[in-house]
Amino acid sequence: MSRALLAAFAGAALAGCGRAEGDGGAAARESTVVRGAVPVRTAPVARMTLQETVSGPGRTEALRQVRVRAPFTGTLVALRVADGDGVARGEEIAALVSRNSAAALAGARAMLDAASTAADSGDAHRALELAQRGLVQAPLRAPEGGVVLSHAANEGDLVNEGDDIVTVAVAGSVVFVAQIVQSDLARVRPGQTATVELAARPGPVRGVVHAILPAASSENLSAPVRIDVAALPGPVALGLFGTARITVGKRTGALVVPAAAVLRDDVYGTSRVAVVLPDGTARWVQVTTGIREGDAVEITAPPPSPQPALAVGTPVIVAGQVGLPDGARVQAQP
């Protein structure tokens, strides 16, 4: 018997063994493996509604800041709040003693300290009692509820009439001001929904566009857009940087592929995806992409002929396609 016949018999015997073991799973495994095929992962082309957004960086700001000022010249004898403290409307946050009262009080105490006789001590005590009785002291109260942003004086400081003592950001007045490029401003309207992602917060904050503010920048070709945000979790903080995404429209029934399926050639500025044909081979297809929402990327134009068309359900490769030659045999893996 020739070697060729022996090899043929051996192959037939092995094949028979493979079929015989089908109930044990060997045949099932062999049926799912294509010899010489590249293992890849695929996902189907789909249709969905995408939100069209414009975005820009920005930070939190307070629309209303109230300042507690000294009603007269005097000494700040008490400061009961610190930066970042919450205050209620009408809450006493500081106390001020007039300059004359403070001088009389200081003079009486100096007399008491310097008294060397009983008579001198009695006079000093009477002077101290008179100074305390005629003490002109004014409590300084928060005109609005909110959060203390800063203080400009400390206990014991001499302040003049009208000097700032404490600055309070009024509760509910914190907004997010985003810098949107001028080319996108035509699509921004009051009332549009937005999300704000702050570096200092764990999740996005919902908001609504209030207006485009009249302070455009000629340096970076942007304009500020005020976004009224929902109540921020935790203490109010100004100057928190983040990114706003404003929904300016939606694309219904858009043809989309997973973002991982799209490979971009930065040299030529083109994008392409690898599709799996019915015969199990991969074909590269040049595509034109549109908007992106999360992991979905819109395909805005059909591939140029004679490339395969993209239709709903067409499998595209999302993993294993890098360096894959056109026409290579592939095997989809779970």
Question: What is shown here, in short?
Answer:
By secondary structure, the chain is an alpha+beta fold.
Spatial strand sequence of the major β-sheet:
2-11-14-13-12-15
Helix content: 10-25%
Secondary structure class reads alpha+beta
Give the CA-CA distance, first to last residue: 45 Å
Helix segment count?
4
Task: Give the count of structural domains.
Answer: 3
H and E order: HHEEEEEEHHEEEEEEEEEEEEEEE
Query: Largest sheet at a glance?
Result: 6 strands, antiparallel, barrel
**CATH architecture verdict of the largest domain:** Beta Barrel
Beta strands, count: 21
Mean pLDDT: 81
What is the CATH class of the largest domain?
A: Mainly Beta
Characterize the structure shown.
With 334 residues, the protein is α+β, with helices and mostly antiparallel strands. It has three domains: 38-50 and 252-332, Beta Barrel (conserved putative lor/sdh protein from methanococcus maripaludis s2 fold); 53-62 and 172-251, Beta Barrel (Elongation Factor Tu (Ef-tu), domain 3), CATH 2.40.30.170; 65-170, RNA polymerase II/Efflux pump adaptor protein, barrel-sandwich hybrid domain (OB fold (Dihydrolipoamide Acetyltransferase, E2P)). The chain has four helices and 21 strands. It has a six-stranded antiparallel barrel. It has a four-stranded antiparallel beta sheet with strand order 3-10-8-5, with no helix packed on it. The longest helix is centred in the N-terminal third of the chain and has 18 residues, at 3-20. It is rod-shaped and about 115 Å long.
